[in-house]
Structures are given as C-alpha cells and as structure tokens.
Design brief:
With 71 residues, the chain is mainly alpha-helical. The chain is built from 4 helices and no strands. The two termini are 18 Å apart.
C-alpha cells in the first residue's frame, strides 16, 4: 500500500499524495465521461439546450485538479 511504502521510505509522502490526488481526479473525470445521471428537467433543457446534467461547456470537468501542499 502507499502507506507502507511511505512508512518504509520507499516512497515519499509527496509522491503518495500526488498519486492519491491523481486517482481522485481520474475518478471524478470518469464520472463526467460516463454521464449516467438523471436527465435535466424540461425547463432546464429549454434554458440550457441540453438534457445532460452538469455538462454545458465542459469547463467544470476540465477544471477538476489536485494540489499537494506541504507534504
């Protein structure tokens, strides 16, 4: 595990946290690509022009990132 690798000094805590951050980011972005949420309401579709929830310009999913500070 990442924790045992950090404990036995075969991995730095910064590297472990970066890998965990990358994993979380990948999971979130995969949810956007999968897009299996309930469709938008008729009113939202009229206003937005799309039945896909949380997806309009793609800017939200593209903004998902992570930062490792003070590891």
């Amino acid at each position: 595990s990442k924790f045992s690798q950090v404990a036995d000094n075969s991995m730095t805590s910064k590297t472990a946290l970066a890998q965990i951050g990358q994993l979380g980011m990948d999971i979130c972005k995969k949810a956007f690509r999968k897009n299996d949420w309930v469709a938008n309401s008729k009113k939202t579709v009229e206003l937005k022009g799309s039945s896909s929830p949380l997806i309009d310009s793609g800017e939200l999913s593209q903004s998902i990132t992570y930062i490792v500070e003070k590891a």
